[in-house]
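Researcher: Here's a chain I'd like modeled. Treat it as a single chain, no partners, no ligands.
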Amino acid sequence: MARYRRKSNRKQYATLLMFALIILACGVVWLCWKGADALSSYTGKNANYDAIILEAARRNQVDPRLLKAVIWRESRFDPSTRGKAGEIGLMQIMPKQAVVDWAKAKKRSVPYRGTLYDPEMNIEIGSWYLGRAIRRWSKYRECYVLALCEYNAGLTRANKWKPANPAGSVRQKISIPSTLNYVNDIMDRYESYKKTWKIK
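Model: Modeled as a single isolated chain. Structure tokens:
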């Protein structure tokens, strides 16, 4: 009887051990998958939204590589991201500013807040807003830098930072360190995408 119990106990331990190993293996696989996804998003190699980016960039006259760099910096490609000041989604659009301006320009009603998390809607509004800023500063050599200043810190500040000479430099005039970091990060990423993302 004692021998039977020992065998039964061994079988139970073996079953529990096998079950624990299966759970551990599943956990390791899940962590590797999530880690790879997070690394891909952080490094900017995420291609999940490339088709949407290309279409929105074409419609709104923005270089898709710049647009992707903005998305990388704003949200690391997480469509559910919410900013401290109420910014929403991939491009961290502001419901009471960019969204309202877009709706007026397109003669449409302002979209419901929940729809702003949708990648297509978010990228469409964000790319329109960025494209408008690029066109506003098009006579300046560093029009992308000024457009990014406007996107991040607003038109009033971008106006303060514009150089007297359109051929002049902008970055040394940016008085907010976080905006300067923002601009530098995006422009560095943009240069990287120009080398690595071959657009047909």
